[in-house]
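Build the 3D complex.
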Amino acid sequence: MTNRSPVSKTVIYVLLTLGAVMMAFPFFWMLSTSFKTVGGVSQLPPQLIPNPFKWENYVTVWEKVNFGRYTLNSTIIVVLDLAGTLLSCSMVAFGLAMFRFKLRKPIYIVMLATLMMPSQVTLIPSYFIWKTFGTLNTYYPLILPSFLGGAFGIFLIHQFMKSLPGELYEAAVIDGYNPLQILIKIYIPLCKPALAALSVFTFMGSWNNTLGPLIYLQDKSLYTLPLGLLYLRSNTDANTALLMAGAVIITTPVVIVYLIAQKQFVQGIAFTGLKG
Amino acid sequence: MQKQGYWGYLFTAPFVINIILFIAFPIFFSAYISFTHWDLFNPPEWVGLDNWVRLFKQDSFWVSLRNVLFFALIFVPLQTILAFVVAYMLNQSLRGSTVFRLLYFMPVVTPWIASALLWAWLYNYKFGMINWLLESLGVDPVKWLDSKYWWLTIGSVAIVNVWKGIGDSMIAMLAGMQNVPKEVLESAEIDGANKWKQLTKIVFPLVSPMIYLVMLLSTIAAFQAFDAFLGMYGALDAGSVQERNMVPNLLIYRDAFLLTKMGPASAMAWALFVIILAFTLFQRYFEKRWVHYD
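Done.
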């Protein structure tokens, strides 16, 4: 950080504000449009503040276009994904960090390598596996993999666990704990910052996932929010105000989570990006 | 570290299953499938290089590559430069920098589908905000997403990608900049180096590893873009996307899951992987010339 003259500071403020307006205006426009009537949407020049204010759009989207259901579906998947990811990633990271065994190094290297594996190559065989198991058009393909651990999460927690003092483990053994108890009672509580960061990333990934539900789900009653929104856009003559109401519904939870958990976001980027 | 190996195997078992089932098997299987005709229902039929030969003769494949290349060419440099500029400005001692950081990061967390619908609305030919602004400046309205010029459509999507991605790259670069020691800048100032010299000779070299990482990751992301295009084109499936606006991942999705041509789709997936790998290695090659470590 350096100090600048008032003039150059003003220039920086003006530029930053201009940029911020360009970043934020679309959100304002989404919200504004979501309260418009069909006539209001197509009015030129555009109305900045909707008149009349039609909040019934949200009722229509929530009840008639089934977004209530989609929201519930998305929530179920996100909650289970979160549980699965936190559980399995802590387990695997703990295993890699605390025990010496023959395949430890190879597993660790493969884990790092999978960070680079493009998903499109494994997509078709994965689909085939779920089809063979008879689980197409269910949530299993969207949920079960998170219980098997993901490279990103394992890496993040592994990095964090390694930064904890090794004597901690020895002390717990002397106290008569077995490894599972040590993980649950000592390491998981200590890893809270890393787990919080992982939760935020998992939530975003799962909530925003489009390709998975698109491939695996057919019944409209099983659709998640991204799919419901795409369906609304492409299959009906839904008006723009309804689409924007749907977009607001899908965006609000992530923005709230982001506002609450900004610190974890930045920490997560720091854990993985900088130390990696 | 404990010696009892079985605990290690026990704890890592979920991921070992994951590796075998969803990584190792798929890699070999999809390589095999790329040499077969397979519709998912009947047994795969070996056809040798057929899919590969056809792939290289297929116009839509080359069109999709051209598009994604153009997309990356617009998106990656623009996002990197803007993110660097914003990060540099936010790194000055400013009041309210937290609020700015918050706003610039908002698009990153917004679901792609919502962002895409929103921008499709802003780009709308008749009632969109962008054309309205242009018109009030006396410019004729433009068919951004429905243009007969492929580059205009792809470019429009690339701009939305920049909007969505600046925040992410900016945070990474800001983290890099905050590692630049204050004393170094201060002593440079005493030595008479102006702000521009400090930026180019000190800040940029020290942040260059982060810039490199950001460019590498966004190039990979560009080649894998899927939601962005699906959402911006407003299609539930890739079947209705016009050929001139195709990108590789939409093509793979269409061939595999709409036309159930698993062989060609697998060949294409592998081709895309090889291309991404080539670009990554290409960037690594040039890394030495401008990225400074230590």
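The mean pLDDT of chain B is 91.
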